[in-house]
Amino acid sequence: MRGLDAPLHKRLRDVLSDCGPFDSSSTLRVVFDDPRIYPWRNNLPEANGRASRVNALISYLYGQQNEKKVNALLLFLLVLVDHAEKGTDCLNELAEAARALAEMLGGVNLSQLPPEHQEDIPGPEPEPPPIRVDLPIPPPEIFIQQTEVPPLTTALTTIIIKIPYQTLQAVLSNAEIDPSQLPPGLPARQMAETLVAQFRSYRSSKARPDYHPLVALLGYLLQAGDAYGLDDQATMLFERLVRRGRENLKALHARRSVGRIETAQGAGIGTGTYVGNGLLLTCNHIFTKNAVQRAWVHFGQVKGGLGIDEPIELDLATPIARNSQLDFALLRLKEPISYPAARPEDIILSSNGKVRLIHHPEGGFVEVSALGDIRQAGTEYIDHTIPAKEGSSGGPLFDEQWRFVAIHRGNVGMGRSVTPGTLGGTPIRAIWSVLAPNLT
Fold this sequence. Notes:
Number of domains: 3
Number of helices: 12
Shape: globular
Structural class: alpha+beta
Order of helices and strands: HHHHHHHHHHEEEHEEEEEEEEEEEH
Largest sheet: 6 strands, antiparallel, barrel
Radius of gyration: 24 Å
Mean pLDDT: 87
CATH topology of the largest domain: Thrombin, subunit H
Number of strands: 14
């Protein structure tokens, strides 16, 4: 068995440090009561400190297999996935890490590894099918999970206790947080609780799409290094929250450019992206499949939102461009809008890349997917592993840097060989010659 490559080793170390049961050796051993990993329970390596336990366990389990030749480290990750709280970042990060490790080990299909079917664990396959773990993705409005509230409150309380009130005022001001909401004499714990409550209730705005008080404050504290006496646990928590928060801000900004395409009766039939200059980019088959002569785009359709935006009619009679082979349509909006544009980018995509989808599955509220894999990439197509449904067609696909690189097509039908279990997309590069002159 080849060794873990450095990027994957770091990824496993980071996710296990953030989400694994490594507070103590006894806490870790409890997890090994699960029958899938019980054989290694009494031989776990001893180590002092969370980081050391993580490194020691990765090294030990990676070299172990069960009687079915399934790697022990992969089984450990799957146990953690089963135990993780639903709808949390840790659930998604653990599943993604398990998926990456399974791919490196030879394509074990995670969907075939539920705990109640341990006898069905497959061995390595020469050409692995794509690994699809359909997990609920927390909406980008959620910057703090419920389970993170107590440790975050405790960490902030510890900092507030250590520093004079004047210093606290300066720290809050540097993070652009009004210090008047924390008057002098307020108990440190209450100050911390007030801050956390503000973080959870804050909603980012179009006026300041790159700001959130949580990201600003924790980012400032991390940059200050040892000045505020952060311990390892607080540092890891702050780093995770800042990393997620920055991704959430990018997701929220990108999501504002995405709308639901509707019929005259208000039924959602697809997804489109405002690309600037009063133009919407989507899939052509949305209109031909539904045989519609008129259609509208409805922005701001967010679960829990006010829903005050009115749908805007699309000019289907005189399209800028419509192409059935590449399945795209560039259409003019009949009214001006104030939403930001997501600018398409002429990027070469490869089969080892990753993308995420923003879409309106089944004509419902807008959703942002987790990162999926590109399995095949050609000059005029990509095949990706992101689960999607009716209504998702036309949604923008963003890469890991949040560049708008493709549009989602869905089931591409006949015409070419498609990787089983994947869905198709059209790269922006394939239609760039049409887009570019209309975006300047």
